[in-house]
Structure formats: structure tokens, C-alpha cells
């Protein structure tokens, strides 16, 4: 193997070529003068490119800051909107409206009378507002259950029938779960 | 092998050993090492691959459920009755909180838990000292505040206190509180619906929770390039009820006052639209506060008795037997019916609520005076082939409404006619109904004999806003139109001057309705602890305007102690709620005068009490088809009645 490798070198045979033309010196004139502008341009391009990338990066990061701020603002506004919606639902609920109206001294409308525009006939019996007596909204624990008004003699009947109000067994038992 | 040894020897003798052998030796050495690697690789990647990968992934993977936002429950006009809101639980890593630093006068100072407590307390609305106790310590996980709104959490997170994090939760809010609680229901502390529409429509409301699964680093941060899997949650659908929350409030409020004033055990009031049979209000008292379940007062209940409690209806069920008698041609509104002072059937003696002598009533009078004996006589023919039971079924008794309300009671009707129940069911004892079924009977009569199945849900709205109304409820012609009309006119006599509900009036409107004062069946009587009858169920069910009915209202008071007649106790609630409903909906008054069917037979005068009418008017009267045993009651011997409810007070 090594013998084969060693004998490989002399395999190349010298070739005879036609005689070349006589060599002569060529003047390399002006080569030093043309390199400066090229380097200048290259450096300038490099600098400009770097500056451009820098500017681009700054702009992009500035943009992402803006996006971040706006996202934050949008999320805050969405949260505020949800909170306001919820407040609105609470204050526009019927019990709240009724209580507010009662506090302001408003009373339910009395029974209305109706006028038929075609015949001019009046039907119904109109009564002024408040004629039906005071309207109060039951609130607090009285809105949930009467305050211990069960007569003692019937207390046991109460328990058996309604399970002390927790009627329906399963459903009632769940009422006592802490929340 | 020999070449390997020679290489080594040559290598030792000098740096310029045979290169080929050296390469070969290194090749073999590295192949040896690599084959060990390869074997290990095959073991890990091949044989144990699944196990190892799974262990590694399990260490990195984090599953985060994303709860779906539960749908709203609204009334018919869109007023929110129940909604879910996003809330946060603030959690502290107490060790990290110690590192809280603030920049003061240009330099950072470590203020720790004390400083954090001072900063967070005003935002969370907590006492700074209490908060300090929660933030100070060495626990890595400690709940600091619950039910924090997103707005507050946002301002808290801006402080960037180390070790403060949140967990997202949802909270169910009920803006109307107790006023429609028994209907809307509630979620328990484990976010499971336990009653009402919350439970009934849970499938629509709850939505499908999503999930987020991603790989985390050792410090718990998400690995940006790791596996991640996100399934968006599908929010629940909004459920729109047929309820009018204003009417609901009014009915609930009036009922609460009446139950308290009459010292009753409980009460229900049902308002139903006559044409559509949609429930406009379902009030129950006592009830509960869904926003404050933990502090429920004694007697507070989750039950919705309008659906869940079956009771013996008593006289309000006389319309069933008398309507059936009208349709079967047994009576007309003016059929004379002579009612004896007592009536013996089988071994029972029936009486009316008030002692009276022989009364010469019309069929209308039987209803207006709420005569038990008169009803037995008038509807006697309905016992043949148990015809009455078919009417009960047609009117919707003995089966649930189809609404699907949780724990709804179907009530009970007898399967066969036997013993005395064949007489008592004619006047509403020996069968049981719930309040919605009772209202439905009157809806049928008010709607020209067409029973429409009651409904509570109007439709569902998906998260994208598409609204799907429920399909129209089933309708059935139970009574002929003319029969329903006659019955309606007869019912107007109840609120007439001679009726049992002469105080139930709304000026300008004609009211058709019926009082009920039934014996109340209990499992355990206070007297002897045995099952039997004790106390009364007082009720009034009716509709207005009688000429062109709009609303059916059924009011029931269970075991009122302060007065017990239906007209007296339940009547005022009916009047008040009906007046409000008619006014709110701008229902034009009745223009035609009331029909005014005669209550007494021609020539008979009620001014002769205790059965002493003129001799000329005595004797067997011609109650058409129905007088088979009417006259036999007078000679009856009174026997002690082991079965209750035969001789008790009913009107």
C-alpha cells in the first residue's frame, strides 16, 4: 500500500509546450489613487447602513412601546367598562330603582283612565297617584323571611312541612353552605 | 491487533511513528467511546425514550384551565338578573415580599412587607395592619385578598411588589337580590348551580372551559419556544326569561307583606300572560339572598314553592268540575241547583263552610257561593266512566309543566274514583296541584278553552349576539270556546256582590276569579304528630280584564293564622298586583257591562236565612240531570269521619 503511494509521484511526465512570448513589465499606474474613493464609499455605506439599522431599531422599539402603552390603556378601559356595566346593572335593577324612587318620595301611579281619540269616550276610573296608600319596599332580612312570627303551638307543624323553610331537603340543605 | 501494538510501540519510540497506524488506533478508540455513547443513546432514546421524555415533559408542562364566562340570565326586556364578573384572588409569596424596595430621595431602600402593606392597603380597601400580618412571614403561598376587581388588580400590579401574584376567578352577581332569587336560583361556593334557572338552564349557561398548556422553566416562566397548546373557552349563552322584573318585584313585595301580616307559613304568587301562558312573575316568600347565602336568616329557603310545593287546591278547583259539567251538558250557568243543609254520600256527611238551610242556587250561584254540596250535585254525572279524571289530565294536572324547573312537583290526581274521593275531588280536596298548574287552569278558561303549556324561558343568546327563541309551546283545546266563555262569565259572579270575593275589585275592570280556602294536608300535625289536615291554604286565582283577558294571577298563602279565607287574605295581593299589571301594560278597561248571571233561582230570596224560604218554592227542584241524591242528605246520621276533609271549612 505504501509502496503504491510512494511510486505515484513519478507518474507525471513533462510536457513540451510552445515557447511563450517574451515577458515585459507593465506599469501599474493610478492603482493607489482609485482605492481611496472606494474605501470612502464603502465606509460611508457601512456607516449609513448602521445608522439606518439603528434608526429602524429605535423606531421599531418606540413603536412597540407605543403599542404596549396602548394595549395597556385598552385593557384598562375594557376593565373599566366592565366595572361600569356591572354598576349599571346593579343600579338599574328593579329593587334598586324602587327603593331610590321611594326615597325620592315618588309613589306608584294610580289606576289610569283611557280616552278613545276617535269617539272621545273616557273609560276606566282614574285615581290620583298615592291614592292606593303608601308603597314601601320590603328590605333587609324581612325581604327574605318573616322575623320569627311563627306561633309556638304550630312550630312543630312548621318544621315538618317546610323543614323550617328549607323545603325540598336537598336544595334547602345547600342553603346553609358557606360561600 | 498486531498492527495496533506495533503502532503503540512506534509511537513511544518517536513522534514520527507510522501515521496510518496512528489514525487507525484513534479511529478504533473513538469508535469505542462513541459506541458507548451510542448504546446509551439507544437506551435513552430507544428503550426508555417514552418514560424519560414523559418525565421530563411532566416536569416542564403546566396545565392552566381557562374558565368559560357563564352566561347572563335576563328578564324579558334584557334587565340583568344574574351575571358573572371577572375577579382576582391576590396571592403573596411572603419571602419575596420582603425584598420590596422603593426609590426614595434618589436611592433605593428596602421597605419589605411593612411598606408593601402600606402601599397596597388603600388600593385593596383593607386595613394596613391586617394586611401586614398577611404579607409578613415565610410562607411561599398565602391568599391576601379575594374578589378583587380587574381595575384594582391593575393598579396593584403597577406597584410591582415582588411576590404578589393573582389567580383569576369569576363571581356570580345577582343585581335584583332576593326579589327574584327563588326563580333565578344561585350558584354555591363551589360554582355549582344549586337551584332555579341556574340549575335548570345550566347546560346553556355554563359554556365550555378552555385550557392552556405550556412548558415552563425551573423558575416557573413560560419557555417561549416550548410546546404550547391553547384551547379558547366558549362562553356560555345568555338565557332570557319571560319574566318582567318590575312585575316580579311588585308581586314579591306585596306577597312578603301579606305573608308577614297574615302570619302565614309561606306564600306564592304567579302572574301569567293569558295568550302565551308565559310566566311574567313567580314570587315566593320566604326566600333567600343569593348575594349573601352564608348569612341567611332563620326561615330563609332556596325552595321555589310555586313549582315545588303541591297542595290541595280546594275551591279554586271547582272550576274544573263545573267547566267539565258545562261541556258535558250536565248544567248551564242558570241551571237551578237546590243545596240542602247537609248531604250524605256513602258514609260521609258533606257540609258547606257556613251552616245554612236549603238554598236554591243556580249553577252560577254554586260557584259564587262556593258551595261544596252544590258542586257535588252539579258534577254528579262526571263520576260516570271517571270522566272528571280525563279533564284533570287535559287541564295539565298530575304532570309537570314541561318547563323543567328543578325539583318541580307534578302534584297528584287519583287514578280511579273510589270511596268518598269521587265527591271530594269535585271541590278540590283529595288531589294536589302546584301554583303554576293552578294558574294554568285559569289561563285555559281565560284563553277561550285553549290551554297553552306554561313557559319560563323566552330564548337564548349566544356570545356572538345571535338570539334563538324557544319553540312555541304546545296548545290544546280543552274546553269548547262557548263553554270557556260561559265559565268565564260564571267566574265573574265570584267577585260580584253575592260572591265570596266581593272585595276583589279593580275599578274600571271586570275580574273573573275564584277564592279557595282548602284544608291543608301536613305530614305531621302539631296536635298528634300524625299525618292529616291542619290549617288552611288560602288562595285567590283570577284574571282580568274579564272581557278580553290579559293576565292570570294566582296567589296562595299557606297556613295563614291571621284570617284564613282566600278572598280575605290572598284577595288583596291579587288586587294590588293586578292593578299594577294592568296599569303598567296600559290595558284598556272593560267597556261592556258584567254579564251578571243570577246567583239565586227565580223567586228565591236570600233574605230568608236558615232554610225558611216560602213554602211554594220548596220541594224537589229541577237540577237538570243532577238531582239523583240531592234530597237524601237531610236525614243523614252524623258519623265520626276518620278520613279528614269531608266536613271541613271550604269556600
From TrEMBL, chain A:
The chain crosses the membrane at residues 36-60, 154-177. Keywords: Membrane, Transmembrane, Transmembrane helix. The keyword Transmembrane applies. It comes from the Bacteria. This is Cell division protein FtsL.
Amino acid at each position: 500500500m505504501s509502496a503504491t503511494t510512494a511510486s505515484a509521484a513519478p507518474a507525471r511526465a513533462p510536457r513540451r509546450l510552445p515557447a511563450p512570448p517574451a515577458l515585459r513589465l507593465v506599469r501599474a499606474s493610478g492603482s493607489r489613487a482609485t482605492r481611496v474613493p472606494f474605501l470612502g464609499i464603502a465606509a460611508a455605506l457601512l456607516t449609513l447602513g448602521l445608522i439606518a439599522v439603528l434608526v429602524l431599531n429605535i423606531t421599531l422599539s418606540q413603536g412597540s412601546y407605543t403599542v404596549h402603552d396602548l394595549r395597556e390603556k385598552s385593557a384598562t378601559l375594557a376593565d373599566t367598562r366592565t366595572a361600569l356595566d356591572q354598576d349599571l346593572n346593579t343600579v338599574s335593577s328593579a329593587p334598586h330603582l324602587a327603593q331610590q324612587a321611594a326615597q325620592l318620595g315618588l309613589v306608584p301611579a294610580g289606576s289610569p283612565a283611557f280616552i278613545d281619540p276617535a269617539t272621545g269616550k273616557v273609560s276606566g276610573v282614574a285615581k290620583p297617584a298615592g291614592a292606593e296608600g303608601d308603597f314601601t319596599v320590603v328590605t333587609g332580612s324581612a325581604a327574605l323571611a318573616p322575623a320569627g312570627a311563627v306561633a309556638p303551638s304550630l312550630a312543630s307543624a312548621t318544621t315538618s312541612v317546610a323543614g323550617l323553610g328549607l323545603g325540598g331537603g336537598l336544595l334547602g340543605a345547600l342553603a346553609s353552605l358557606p360561600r | 491487533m498486531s498492527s495496533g501494538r506495533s503502532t503503540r510501540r512506534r509511537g513511544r519510540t518517536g513522534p514520527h511513528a507510522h501515521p496510518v497506524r496512528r489514525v487507525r488506533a484513534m479511529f478504533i478508540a473513538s469508535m469505542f467511546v462513541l459506541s458507548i455513547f451510542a448504546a446509551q443513546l439507544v437506551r435513552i432514546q430507544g428503550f426508555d425514550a417514552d418514560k424519560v421524555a414523559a418525565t421530563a415533559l411532566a416536569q416542564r408542562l403546566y396545565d392552566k384551565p381557562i374558565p368559560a364566562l357563564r352566561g347572563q340570565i335576563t328578564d324579558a326586556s334584557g334587565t340583568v338578573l344574574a351575571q358573572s364578573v371577572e375577579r382576582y384572588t391576590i396571592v403573596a409569596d411572603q419571602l419575596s415580599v420582603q425584598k420590596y424596595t422603593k426609590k426614595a430621595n434618589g436611592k433605593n431602600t428596602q421597605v419589605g412587607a411593612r411598606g408593601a402593606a402600606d402601599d397596597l392597603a388603600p388600593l385593596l380597601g383593607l386595613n394596613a395592619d391586617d394586611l401586614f400580618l398577611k404579607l409578613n412571614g415565610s410562607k411561599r403561598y398565602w391568599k391576601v385578598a379575594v374578589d378583587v376587581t380587574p381595575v384594582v388588580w391593575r393598579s396593584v400590579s403597577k406597584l410591582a411588589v415582588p411576590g404578589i401574584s393573582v389567580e383569576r376567578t369569576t363571581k356570580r352577581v345577582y343585581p335584583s337580590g332576593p326579589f327574584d332569587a327563588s326563580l333565578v336560583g344561585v350558584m354555591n361556593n363551589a360554582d355549582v348551580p344549586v337551584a332555579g334557572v341556574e340549575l335548570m338552564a345550566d347546560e346553556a349557561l355554563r359554556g365550555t372551559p378552555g385550557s392552556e398548556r405550556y412548558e415552563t422553566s425551573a423558575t416557573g416562566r413560560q419557555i417561549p419556544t416550548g410546546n404550547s397548546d391553547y384551547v379558547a373557552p366558549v362562553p356560555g349563552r345568555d338565557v332570557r326569561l319571560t319574566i318582567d322584573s318590575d312585575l316580579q318585584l311588585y308581586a314579591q313585595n306585596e306577597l312578603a307583606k301579606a305573608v308577614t301580616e297574615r302570619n302565614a307559613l309561606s306564600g306564592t304568587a304567579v302572574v301569567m300572560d293569558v295568550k302565551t301562558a308565559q310566566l311574567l312573575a313567580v314570587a315566593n316568600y320566604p326566600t333567600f339572598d343569593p348575594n349573601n347565602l352564608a348569612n341567611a336568616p332563620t326561615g330563609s329557603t332556596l325552595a321555589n314553592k310555586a313549582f315545588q310545593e303541591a297542595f290541595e287546591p280546594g275551591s279554586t278547583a271547582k272550576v274544573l268540575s263545573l267547566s267539565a259539567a258545562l261541556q258535558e251538558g250536565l248544567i248551564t250557568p242558570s241551571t237551578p241547583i237546590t243545596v240542602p243543609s247537609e248531604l250524605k254520600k256513602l258514609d260521609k256527611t258533606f257540609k258547606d263552610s257556613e251552616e245554612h238551610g236549603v238554598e236554591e242556587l243556580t249553577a252560577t250561584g254554586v260557584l259564587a257561593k262556593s258551595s261544596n254540596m252544590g258542586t257535588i250535585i252539579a258534577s254528579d254525572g262526571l263520576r260516570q266512566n271517571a270522566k272528571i279524571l280525563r279533564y284533570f289530565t287535559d287541564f295539565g294536572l298530575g304532570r309537570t309543566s314541561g318547563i323543567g324547573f328543578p325539583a318541580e312537583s307534578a302534584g297528584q290526581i287519583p287514578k280511579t274514583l273510589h270511596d268518598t274521593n269521587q265527591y271530594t275531588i269535585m271541590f278540590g280536596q283529595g288531589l294536589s296541584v302546584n301554583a303554576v298548574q293552578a294558574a294554568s287552569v285559569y289561563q285555559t278558561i281565560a284563553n277561550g278553552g285553549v290551554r297553552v303549556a306554561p313557559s319560563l324561558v323566552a330564548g337564548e343568546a349566544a356570545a356572538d349576539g345571535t338570539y334563538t327563541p324557544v319553540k312555541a309551546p304546545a296548545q290544546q283545546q280543552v274546553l269548547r270556546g262557548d263553554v270557556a266563555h260561559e265559565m268565564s262569565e260564571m267566574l265573574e259572579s265570584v267577585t260580584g256582590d253575592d260572591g265570596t270575593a266581593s272585595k276583589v275589585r279593580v275599578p274600571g275592570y271586570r275580574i273573573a276569579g275564584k277564592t279557595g280556602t282548602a284544608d291543608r294536608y301536613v305530614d305531621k300535625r302539631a296536635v298528634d304528630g300524625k299525618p292529616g289536615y291542619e290549617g288552611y291554604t288560602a288562595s285567590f286565582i283570577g284574571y282580568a280584564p274579564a272581557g278580553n283577558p290579559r293576565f292570570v294571577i294566582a296567589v296562595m298563602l299557606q297556613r295563614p293564622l291571621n284570617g284564613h279565607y282566600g278572598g280575605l287574605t290572598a284577595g288583596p295581593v291579587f288586587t294590588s298586583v293586578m292593578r299594577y299589571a294592568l296599569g303598567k301594560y296600559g290595558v284598556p278597561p272593560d267597556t261592556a257591562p258584567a254579564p251578571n248571571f243570577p246567583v239565586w233561582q227565580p223567586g228565591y230570596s236570600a233574605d230568608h236565612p236558615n232554610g225558611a224560604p216560602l213554602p211554594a218554592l220548596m220541594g224537589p227542584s229541577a237540577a237538570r240531570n243532577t238531582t239523583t241524591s240531592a234530597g237524601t242528605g237531610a236525614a243523614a246520621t252524623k258519623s265520626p269521619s276518620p278520613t279528614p276533609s269531608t266536613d271541613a271549612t271550604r269556600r
